[in-house]
């Protein structure tokens, strides 16, 4: 990549500002640590990739109950007083993006998670650090009751002022996806300003009970009959290169690993919004699963993946996530024209979750630093 002197100065300035912002955030966290530790017992709960988080309206388990070690050893008090929760943001194109965030522990973690999705100075800054945006309008108040698998959520009247139907739909979908990450929630029911409504201002349905469904739905054939088709979840890097975006694609085939990898190799339907996982011109030869290992055999063009700005790391992560979502698939091996291919140490490891907030910020700094000094 060729970088002019002015571009290099701009990148350096942006990088310096980002590092400064992170340093200020860390300093604030350390300053607040004694207060947080004084009011909250040490705890940590780590949801896995795609697994529900069992802490909806209950106090999380102590660290020693989760890890078998003392919560005060090996971690600072501030970190020990936090839990992991999955927050749904949106990117600049409206794709919903789940991110695992570490937040201060408190009772009612499901409501606290939803509050992170409301527009505010602090929430918007946190989302911006990830290259994402919040989905609920500013000043939205949330009441939440969870009982018998049903989460009844009451949103204040601010949600009636969304810009359009797409914003309304994203908000409702993000709330349902977020709440059903918790094991105690199977269904979601909406009230608006204490009242039941059939639709929001722009026609988005909010009546009845909602269950976890397709995320970022796409279809290569708009007229496809859902009764004669199935859905597969694919994972693509966002065009920013910072996060992985889950996409639901409707296909006329079995929803198995063979179909998923084949569809992944075709690339995203919106190629200007998401990045392809497989390099241009690369074909899929076959997919075999043996003893929990998915062996993917691609044509020779696959080696061009290393030409990506991050060396192909995000594409490989998306490939692993797409494969390991299927029962019985524990790991992935890559073959090129029938020969084993090693993309690099740890690049095919199964991530704990598709997007982890701290890792996104770190990777962004590393990528930008590499770009600054990539001269020809």
Characterization of the model:
The protein has 376 residues and is an alpha/beta fold. The protein folds into two domains: 40-211, no CATH class; 217-351, no CATH class. The chain contains nine helices and 13 strands. It has helices at 5-39, 63-67, 77-80, 109-115, 121-129, 165-179, 257-266, 313-324, 357-372, and strands at residues 82-90, 96-104, 142-147, 150-155, 187-192, 209-211, 217-219, 230-237, 244-251, 284-290, 293-298, 331-336, 339-341. A four-stranded mixed beta sheet has the order 3-4-5-6, with helices on one face. Helix 1 runs antiparallel to helix 9. The protein is globular and about 60 Å long. Residues 28-72 have low confidence and may be disordered.
How would the blueprint of this fold be written?
Layout: H1 5-39, H2 63-67, H3 77-80, E1 82-90, E2 96-104, H4 109-115, H5 121-129, E3 142-147, E4 150-155, H6 165-179, E5 187-192, E6 209-211, E7 217-219, E8 230-237, E9 244-251, H7 257-266, E10 284-290, E11 293-298, H8 313-324, E12 331-336, E13 339-341, H9 357-372
Parallel strand pairs: 4-5, 7-9, 11-12
Antiparallel strand pairs: 1-2, 3-4, 5-6, 8-9, 10-11, 12-13
Strand order of the largest sheet: 3-4-5-6
Query: What does the largest sheet look like?
Result: 4 strands, mixed
Any idea what the shape is?
globular
Radius of gyration, whole Å: 22 Å
Number of helices: 9
Counted up, domains total 2
Write a short abstract of this structure.
This protein has 376 residues and is α/β, with parallel strands linked by helices. Helix content is 30%, strand content 21%.
């Amino acid at each position: 990549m060729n970088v002019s002197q002015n571009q290099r100065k701009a990148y350096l300035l942006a990088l310096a500002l980002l590092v400064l912002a992170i340093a200020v955030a860390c300093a604030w966290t350390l300053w607040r640590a004694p207060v947080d530790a004084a009011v909250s017992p040490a705890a940590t709960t780590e949801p896995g990739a795609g697994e529900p988080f069992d802490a909806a309206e209950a106090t999380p388990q102590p660290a020693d109950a989760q890890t078998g070690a003392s919560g005060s050893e090996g971690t600072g008090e501030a970190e020990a007083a936090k839990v992991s929760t999955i927050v749904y943001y949106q990117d600049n194109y409206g794709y919903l993006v789940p991110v695992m965030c570490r937040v201060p522990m408190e009772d009612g973690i499901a409501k606290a998670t939803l509050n992170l999705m409301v527009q505010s100075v602090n929430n918007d800054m946190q989302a911006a650090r990830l290259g994402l945006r919040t989905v609920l309008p500013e000043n939205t108040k949330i009441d939440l009751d969870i009982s018998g698998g049903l989460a009844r959520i009451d949103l204040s009247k601010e949600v009636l002022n969304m810009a359009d139907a797409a914003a309304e739909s994203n908000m409702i979908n993000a709330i349902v996806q977020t709440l059903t990450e918790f094991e105690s929630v199977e269904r979601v029911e909406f009230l608006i300003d204490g009242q039941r409504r059939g639709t929001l201002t722009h026609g988005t349905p909010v009546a009845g009970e909602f269950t976890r469904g397709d995320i970022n739905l796409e279809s290569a054939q708009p007229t496809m009959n859902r009764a004669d088709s199935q859905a597969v979840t694919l994972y693509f890097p966002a065009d920013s290169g910072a996060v992985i975006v889950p996409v639901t694609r409707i296909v006329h085939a079995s929803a198995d690993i063979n179909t998923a990898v084949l569809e992944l190799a075709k690339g995203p339907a919106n190629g200007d919004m998401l990045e392809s996982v497989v390099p241009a011109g690369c074909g899929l030869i076959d997919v075999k699963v043996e003893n929990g290992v998915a062996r993917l055999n691609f044509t020779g063009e696959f080696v061009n993946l290393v030409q990506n700005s991050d060396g192909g790391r995000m594409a490989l992560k998306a490939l692993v996530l797409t494969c390991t979502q299927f029962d019985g698939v524990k790991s992935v091996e890559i073959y090129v024209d029938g020969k084993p291919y090693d993309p690099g140490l740890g690049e095919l490891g199964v991530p704990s979750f598709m997007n982890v907030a701290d890792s996104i910020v770190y990777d962004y700094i590393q990528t930008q630093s590499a770009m600054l000094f990539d001269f020809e």
